[in-house]
Amino acid sequence: MIWILFAVFFAALLFGVPIAFALGLASLAYLLGSDIPLAVIPLKLYSGIDVFVLLSIPGFILAGNIMNHCGMTDRIIRFCNHVVGHIRGGLGLANIGASMLFAGISGTAVADVASIGSIMIPAMKKEGYEADFSCAVTASSSTIGPIIPPSLPMIIAGSLTGLSIGKLFLAGAIPGILLALGLLCISYLISGKRQHPKKNRATINMVATGFLDAFWAILMTLLILFGIIGGVFTPTEASVVAVLYAFAIGIFVYKTLNIRHIPDILLDAAITSGSLMVLVGMANLFGWILISEQVPQVIADSLLSISTNKYVLLLLINLLLIFVGTFMETIAALLILFPILLKVATGVGIDPTQFTVIAVLNLIIGLNTPPVGICLFVAAGIGKVSITKVARAGMPFLLVSLLVLLLVSFVPEISLWLPGWLMD
Length: 424
Description:
globular; 2 domains; single chain; mainly alpha
């Protein structure tokens, strides 16, 4: 029956069925062929979402929707343009910088590509940048979002392991900054070689004005992060604070939040949150079947049979997660694979906080790995260019991302120093 489970799952994915329903269909096919009563389905769906920390996800999604509706994306891009627009290839650098700042609002890679890309890709093409380069920069920089706090994948991972969400947020900060710096360097080098355009240097007054516009987004990230770290509020309470903060900024500071638009914002956040909760519930059912069939033990034994050296195992796990990330959404892959691989990793002495960062970074790099990377498809659709050209243009950025992944994997202090300094 386990072969039927996987056959139905991959067949559903092949036919374009959303991954939550692919998991549900595969689980249903397994249960129909077994002696297990179907009453287990609602029980496992409910137990999957009955986790207190998951209540923070709708709050963060709603806060992000409010800030986006207030025009925060435009303000962030404008500020980054003022800072680096005078450098050769400045729009590409501004694209990456905007993704880094936008990460504090979205926390997801696909949202980053869609929001930043819809503005930056047409603007870069209009200024004379190649379409494939514009799409590649946007897709590659989207990987920063799920690493820099607040990060939805980190919240999911914390709910699966019981690790401190604040500690995981801190653990992702330095890797996220390293990733951003690496992408900035590659973009600058490519732009210099291709003689991409540059703008006139912004005045100090323009930079200051742009900073004040983007300041409120940066402040929200700091408010959430240090509020959790300082023990002022839990992640769930932090999400509520973020919503109230976003409402206050939209109404009283930017004055761009129209009360008539609030029902649409709430509906959009509810749909996004609901679809994510369905995914979590279905993944819990699917994972329960895997555990009952001892699949995690088989995978662990298979990996350990190859080597018990933690560095070799890390390399194997990295390869597996990047491959999975090319065709599976980050949160779904985390829900299914992360608990299994975490046991293997901790069994050979790898710190669980470090491994969480490694797993999330792997899966989001997979979103930009050909041939099926989701972010590549989104960026290519916005830029109206073939996925092949975008993937080819994104290879230098992918290599930098892999280099950062290797550093995080084999130098534990990169992810463990900051949480150890502030929280231990």
